[in-house]
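Methods, example record. To illustrate the input and output format used throughout this study, we show the complete record for Aminoglycoside 3'-phosphotransferase. The sequence lines were provided to the predictor; the line carrying structure tokens was produced by it.
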Amino acid sequence: MSLSLPPELRRVLPAARWEDVSGDSGARVWRSQKFVVKVQELGRLESLRTEQAKLRWLAGRVPVPRVVGYATDEVSEYLATTRLPGLPMHHPDALLHARRNAGLLARALRQLHALPVRECPFNESLAVKLRQARERVERGLVDEADFDAERRGQSAAQVLAYLVRARPVAEDLVVAHGDACLPNFLVSGDYVEAVLDVGRLGIADRHQDLALARRSLRRNADDEMADHFLDTYGRSLIDLAKLEYYQGLDELF
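The corresponding predicted structure is encoded as:
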């Protein structure tokens, strides 16, 4: 399968050899030497137009790719950005320095979470996420076969019922990434070069990010690196029950 660009993007992107580097986000991702293009079906709950707006808001606040263009055709939407240097944190070469990168991830999230909430125009609070989760369950969009071991064998409706029943009383709101897994952070030496896939970014409980970062470190490195991440971020800010809750919430997305 090759990348076919709509006319609006062909005018701004140079001819290039495009490599399909699609991951688990649900979108197809194509990469050339200098640019990245994401492609997904129109009508998804998380639109690439929204991600475009979030990238533009983040520019100058944290390191993110620059938006080159956005376009649609009859069935798909396309988001083109610059390609930034560095390795994703889950890359085998990056995992050779897992302890260092666990600390870098903690500091990158602290930097993001320190942005003024009042300046962020994107609401990803629990009320919004639970409404989206219910819609995804009702539309049959949840992959129950991909549930973590703790919820394997449960239905999406059962997980949703738990989330409603166990909803935390209060939210510790910050500007959160929303999908803070290792593939979404590019690292080079002692620096995080870029934050990627910001379509879920917005005002949310900090545990939304902490839960997914911890799980990603456990899967790609080990429990010791996950603990080092939490220690570096700051244990005094962490509620272990919320970590479990937000890991459960992610099952429906």
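Annotations derived from this record:
Residues 98-113 form the longest helix (16 residues).
The chain has two domains: 7-82, 87-250.
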